[in-house]
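Page 42, continued from yesterday. The earlier attempt failed because a stray header line got pasted into the input along with the sequence. Redoing it now with the clean sequence only.
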Amino acid sequence: MTSYSDISFTSTDGLRLYARDYASWGGRAKCAVICIHGLTRNSSDFEELAPWIAAQGRRVIAVDVRGRGRSQHDTDPEHYNPAVYANDVIKLAQDLGIARAVFIGTSMGGIITMTLALRKPGLIAAAILNDVGPVISAKGLARIASYAGKGADVANWDGATQYIRSINLTAFPDNSMEEWTKWARRAFVEDADGKLELQYDPHIALPLQNGKLKSKSWTANFAFRRLARQRPTLLIRGDLSDLIEPEQVAYMRSVAPEMQYAEVPGVGHAPMLMEAQAQSAIREFLATVD
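This time it went through. Structure tokens are written below.
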């Protein structure tokens, strides 16, 4: 696996935040890639995708959104929202001297990317939305709300693996136990006393629990149109997804007919982007972006 450098930076409101920096493998300099994970995840979700892209000659930055992974938790839960997250990404890009980047956003990461299209459109050279859009299924939101922010009382790594399997099995029915173990190692961390805990602040789920995160909104629709009509955009969907269903895909393609689309068979929300169909689509898409 390609090594990465640790990046520590400070948000405009004083939080210490973290990202992984995967150097490009050389060749002609190309537009960097910024990867943003889903609601309860962290930068380790891209530990296979990032080096694969870096081997294509691109620097890759994988972010720990505030409240996740190695980024600091926010004492004000109201700050766990896409506008604040987008500001953090803008600050990171400024600190690194990145004027333009291709954004890969999984689930919440895609919502942050769409928010950036409103707040800092010049930063986006192109975007890959992974199983997310401006209109999402209430069914998928309810499933995520059933576990997000509620903790997991596990005694050991076997228990952690079983927990991760239990909340993801319907979306990834063909995963091996080896894969579930890998996911558990990404999701949990050992504290100083050897106790396993999830790598996120439970308060990140408040927008789901208090109804502020809705399945559709005028702002989300406007942000998506701004993004997909003005920048090259690729939507990747798992064909078992309950968050972006065929109805939502059809809507997105109707309002943004230039948007590219790829579907990953046999998986739900959200593809890990190392599947053959996802890799093929990403490789072809990136080849069009300098």
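Notes: The mean pLDDT is 95.
Reminder to self: strip header lines before submitting.
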